[in-house]
């Protein structure tokens, strides 16, 4: 067995097999010799298995690339004036814009001499690399697609309903409501007319469901007089209803029994309403009435 082989070689112990410790690194920490050298800036999160063959080599950070100020022919805006030189002398080298370097202009590259602060800057960089702790951070092997949250469907994100239900309540007397026999919308879609079995033509506002007007055509067809029969037989239903397709003249054509009735709703503009009334009055008197808009 592999566990018995590791136990015989001393890689694991009985505490690990019985579950008292979860990792052999915990047992190695207890049995470690305090006089044995160890890493000064070593964190507990580091994997000790990778450190058995010695510390891993960590490359030093690269220096930033030289800019315009380090050029042997820098632009004039990078050349310091006498006032700038006096200010730089009073400042600490770390606070200066270019450190120990003072930008200078040379006629050619052959005229550039050795940099006087090269040894000092190299020595300070070695001190920084020696004293500054550096730790190799492991990259997590994570699938990028698992980090992207699952987006909900577009239908679930709608903050408003896509359909609107409007109830048009028909007023009636008695126990049984009248049956709607026909419906016709206006050409502009703002109004709607309905014809019912009680002989009424009702005008509705589509967006609000408000009843604007109603006309009793059954009573009109019967001449406005009460019949001798029963009430159910005297009521003539509206069997057909249609709106004028011309948007300028809001008229309804309703059919009750054998009669056709034209109704001016008056829902159009004032000028168009007056023209519609004039045409209907002229048509009622008789004669040849023509209108390009009608």
Could you walk me through the main structural features you see in this protein, from its secondary elements to its overall organization?
This protein is of the alpha+beta class. It has nine helices and seven strands; from the N terminus they run ααααααββββααβββα. The strands form two sheets. A four-stranded antiparallel beta sheet has the order 1-2-3-4.
Keywords:
single chain; 3-stranded antiparallel sheet; 9 helices; 7 strands; 294 residues
Rounded average pLDDT: 80
C-alpha-based Rg, rounded: 49 Å
Number of helices: 9
Name the helicity range: 10-25%
Give unreliable regions as ranges: none
Instruction: Write down how many β-strands occur, each being a DSSP E stretch of 2 or more residues.
Output: 7
Distance separating the two termini: 103 Å
Strand content: 5-15%
Helix/strand structural class: alpha+beta
User: Within the largest sheet, what's the order of strands?
Assistant: 1-2-3-4
Q: What's the SSE pattern?
A: HHHHHHEEEEHHEEEH
Overall geometry = elongated
The largest β sheet comes out as: 4 strands, antiparallel
Gist?
With 294 residues, this protein is α+β, with helices and mostly antiparallel strands. Helix content is 24%, strand content 14%. The chain has helices at residues 2-9, 14-18, 24-30, 82-90, 118-131, 144-147, 217-221, 231-234, 270-285; strands at 180-185, 191-196, 200-205, 211-216, 238-243, 251-256, 259-264.
Layout of helices and strands:
Layout: H1 2-9, H2 14-18, H3 24-30, H4 82-90, H5 118-131, H6 144-147, E1 180-185, E2 191-196, E3 200-205, E4 211-216, H7 217-221, H8 231-234, E5 238-243, E6 251-256, E7 259-264, H9 270-285
Antiparallel strand pairs: 1-2, 2-3, 3-4, 5-6, 6-7
